[in-house]
Amino acid sequence: MTKIIIADDHPMLRFGFIQFINKEVDMKVTEECETGEELLSKILDDDFDIVILDIDMPGRNGIDILKEIKKMKPEMPVLILSSFNETRYGVRAIQAGANAYLSKEVKKEILIETLRRIKGGKKFITPQLAEVLADEIDSSSSDKPLHEKLSDRELEIMRHIALGKSVSEIAELLSLSVNTINTYRARVMEKMKMKSNTQLALYALENKLLD
Questions:
Q1: Exposure of 186 by Cβ count < 10 A (0-12 exposed, 13-18 middle, 19+ buried)?
Q2: Pick from 21, 67, 106, 12: nearest CA to 30
Q3: C-alpha to C-alpha distance for 178 and 168, rounded to whole angstroms
Q4: What are phi and psi of 57, to 5 degrees?
Q5: Within this chain, do residues 33 and 131 fall inside the same structural domain, yes or no?
Q6: pLDDT score for 139
Q7: Distance from C-alpha of 100 to C-alpha of 111, rounded to nearest angstrom
Q8: Which of 12, 49, 81, 152 measures 20 to 30 Å from 70, CA to CA?
């Protein structure tokens, strides 16, 4: 039996995924959690065959948590399940160690097939993500959108700024100091060649980074 743990801060979504995964005779969701920190704690206390991880949760985001999982248990397969399509965070997730990246709108049959494929540590790349990865290889750094030049943490902070959160709110949310957030903000502004939060917000909206 394949033991699965799922981390997503939306109870109804968790419930839906758990219901149809548990209908399979060879796999079962045995644990669920709402935050990345809770997930890391449960992974330390128990062994699982697969982790299903939402990319956008309160506190530390899914990419950050993914990196921690790979430090703790490098061989543990992780499926990133996200409301963002492959063009947003798919490449970043695979580069950070994810075994697969799927949209939450994925068909049930593809989700089950992906879980079976990644068990044991194999990777599963959808045709859509394969195309994005190919474009990533072919394009030079000068061709990339400005936000692609940001680190994972810088992109996360840029999104919070674009959503109108204050520096102190972001610091509390990410458990970082205000000074650290200000440093990241300065880096973001420099890399994005922008001077105001309004410019960042408009850019994020135009590039659909807030969906």
A1: exposed
A2: 21
A3: 6
A4: -125, 165
A5: yes
A6: 55
A7: 10
A8: 12
Last residue in a domain, options 116, 137, 158: 137
Q: Residue 191 sits in a domain of what CATH number? A: 1.10.10.10
> What is the C-alpha to C-alpha distance for residues 177 and 181, in angstroms, rounded to an integer?
6
List, run by run, the mean pLDDT of 10-residue segments along the chain (211 residues): 94 92 94 93 92 86 90 93 78 90 89 92 86 66 72 87 90 88 90 88 84 64
Nearest to 36 by CA among 175, 167, 165, 211: 175
- pLDDT score for 211: 64
* Same-domain status, 149 and 129: no
Backbone angles phi and psi of 70, in degrees to 5: -70, -25
Residue 211 lies inside a defined structural domain of this protein: no
pLDDT for 62 equals 87
Q: Which tokens belong to 134?
A: 């190919």
Residue 167 CA to residue 171 CA, distance in Å, equals 6
Closest C-alpha among 59, 109, 111 to residue 82? 111
Cα separation, 137 vs 183, in Å, equals 30
The pLDDT of residue 80: 94
Tokens of 169: 């709110």
**CA dist., res. 57 & res. 45, Å (int):** 21
pLDDT at res. 193: 87
pLDDT at 25: 92
Which domain does 25 fall in, by range?
A: 2-137
